[in-house]
Backbone:
C-alpha cells in the first residue's frame, strides 16, 4: 500500500480531509507519520485520534534551518514515503530537504499560483481587489509556491468578504482538490513535462475530477 508522510504546522483541516479520503477508500494509502514543527498544532490531535503516529520536532533545538531539515529528512526517510504532503506546513524547506525527495513533495497554497505567493495569500487577494482567487496543489521545487501545478480550483471573491470569510470559502475547495491530487499521484497517473503536469484520464472542468 502507498504511504504518505504529512507535514503540518497548525489546524490540520487539510490533513483531516486526506484522512477522510483514506478512510472512505477514495485514496488507497496510509499515513505513517504526521510531523509538526509546532507543539500546539491541532492537527497532531486529529492524527492521534485516527491512530496515526505523530512527531513534534522543535526547531529551537537546531541552530539552522538546514540542520532541522536534515534531521527531519532522516526521520521521514525511515518511513519510506511514496509522497510527502505539506498541509499547512509554514516553514520554507531548505534545498537539502528538497534535493532529498525530489519530485515527491506536494503543497497546497490558498491562491491561484503564480498569483499571491508566500504568506497571507487570501489577504493579498483582497488587498489587490481580485474578483477570483482560489487554491492550487503543486509539486514543491526550490522556488517558493511555484512548482508545477497539479490541480487548481477557482473561487469567487465577494464584495463583503473579509479575510476570514474568503479563507473559509477557499478552504472548502482545498479539501476537495488536495485528496484528488494525491489520489492521482498515488495511482501513477501524473506525469511532469517541464512545467506542465499531465494527468491521465482526468476530467477538466471547474474543479478537475476523476
Ligand atoms: C491552508 O489554507 C493552506 O492552503 C495554507 O495554510 C492553511 C492550512 O490550513 N497554506 C499556505 O498558506 C502555504 N503557503 P489547515 O492546517 O487547516 O490545513
Residues:
Amino acid at each position: 500500500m502507498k504511504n504518505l508522510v504529512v507535514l503540518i504546522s497548525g489546524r490540520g483541516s487539510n490533513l483531516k480531509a486526506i484522512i477522510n479520503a483514506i478512510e472512505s477508500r477514495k485514496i488507497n494509502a496510509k499515513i505513517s507519520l504526521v510531523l509538526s514543527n509546532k507543539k500546539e498544532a491541532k492537527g497532531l490531535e486529529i492524527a492521534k485520534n485516527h491512530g496515526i503516529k505523530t512527531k513534534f520536532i522543535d526547531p529551537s533545538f537546531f541552530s539552522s534551518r538546514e540542520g532541522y531539515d536534515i534531521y527531519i529528512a532522516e526521520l521521514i526517510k525511515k518511513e519510506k514515503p511514496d509522497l510527502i504532503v505539506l498541509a499547512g506546513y509554514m516553514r520554507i524547506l531548505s534545498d537539502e530537504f528538497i534535493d532529498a525527495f525530489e519530485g515527491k513533495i506536494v503543497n497546497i497554497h490558498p491562491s491561484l499560483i503564480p498569483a499571491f505567493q508566500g504568506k497571507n495569500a487570501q489577504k493579498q487577494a483582497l488587498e489587490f481587489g481580485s474578483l477570483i482567487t482560489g487554491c492550487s496543489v503543486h509539486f514543491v521545487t526550490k522556488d517558493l509556491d511555484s512548482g508545477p501545478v497539479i490541480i487548481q480550483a477557482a473561487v469567487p471573491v465577494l464584495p463583503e468578504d473579509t479575510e476570514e470569510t474568503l479563507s473559509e470559502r477557499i478552504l472548502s475547495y482545498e479539501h476537495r482538490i488536495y485528496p484528488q491530487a494525491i489520489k492521482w499521484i498515488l495511482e501513477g497517473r501524473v506525469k511532469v513535462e517541464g512545467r506542465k503536469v499531465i494527468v491521465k484520464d482526468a476530467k477538466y472542468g471547474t474543479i478537475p475530477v476523476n
Notes: The radius of gyration is 16 Å.
